[in-house]
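Service request form, structural biology core

Requester: graduate student, group of Dr. S.
Request type: structure prediction, single chain
Budget code: on file
Notes: please return the result as structure tokens.

Sequence provided:
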Amino acid sequence: MVKKTTKDLAFSKVSVNDLILFCIHFIISNSEQCSFERLVKECFTLFPDTLKFPRYPIWPDSRKLDRPLRALRNEKLIIGDPKTYFILTETGEEKSAVVSKLLRQGKLL
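Core staff response, request fulfilled:
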């Protein structure tokens, strides 16, 4: 049995959608365009347990971003698609700031 750390347990309380919002904000705040590939890389780098393949944990499973990205678009938190770039709406910016504060206060990042 694998023992979970406090950091793992804290991340499990944050939804995948919120982690994606945080990563989009992080990428854009570094003056980069948020392409799908860049988003997968950032999500996997920061939150590998959320995105890994079960049998191949050193590789990201980008399919795990598909439904959350559609949900974020439907909630009008992001604009864009995997063929172009993602940006945050004003509401998405506000929510990503809350998520960022939560992650930083929990000393997760």
